[in-house]
Amino acid sequence: MRNITRFPFVATMSIFLLLSMAQFALADRLAENNAANLSKWAVGALANFNPTAKPLPTKNITFRDIDGKKRSLAEFRGQVVLVNFWATWCGPCRREMPDLDQLQATLGGADFTVVAISSDRKGMAVVQAFYEENEIKHLDAFIDETTKAQRAFGAYGLPTSVLLDAKGKVRSKAGLAQPPARLTTSTQI
What is the C-alpha to C-alpha distance for residues 167 and 81, in angstroms, rounded to an integer? Predict the structure, then answer.
């Protein structure tokens, strides 16, 4: 059964992502990266997102979908993508997956998507069981048992999330679960 108290995370992450997307668009128009300005607004888990000084290129990693078909990040160009590396045996990962599912339900579409890539070595069956047990309905199931995709991003701890802009460039990265996420207001700065 889902915990309704998770909504604040989804709401604050949604606001942060929308601010990030607007910041990316502005940075592109001004030909400079102002993404670091977002860090003053983020606290808790959001403060763990480290904006890059400039957009970084992304390796075209591959992983498999629920049908075993080879997929790549290149398929998501044109969208802002939150890539999440996780595993069913990881406690913090298990806690954040319902939040990511709700985030996908709230913001997912033509402009944004969450790509959650499991590194479970026991295969897709354990991922599918986890999705069913936890009522994950809005995230597609992806897996990379080799962890090559995860290592390509320097994600050596779980969970790790990487935010890519619509051009497929790395804009920020966060690792390991933190205290509850929230955005500060201008009066708190």
Answer: 10
pLDDT in tens, 90-125: 999 999 999 899 989 988 999 999 999 999 999 999
Contacts 24+ apart (CB under 8 A), 173-178: 173/49, 173/50, 173/52, 174/45, 174/46, 174/48, 174/49, 174/50, 175/48, 176/48, 176/92, 177/45, 177/92, 177/93, 177/95, 177/96, 178/44, 178/45, 178/47, 178/48
Give the tokens for residue 99.
């939040």
102 contacts 111 by C-beta, under 8 angstroms: no
The pLDDT tens digits for 144-188 are: 999 999 999 988 889 999 999 999 999 888 875 443 444 333 333
pTM of the model: 0.75
- Secondary structure (H, E, C), 49-91: CEEEEEEECCCCCEEEECCCCEEEHHHHCCCEEEEEEECCCCH
**Non-local CB neighbours of 35 within 8 Å, separated by 6+ positions:** 20, 23, 24, 27, 51, 52, 171, 172
Domains of the chain with CATH codes: 4-175 (3.40.30.10)
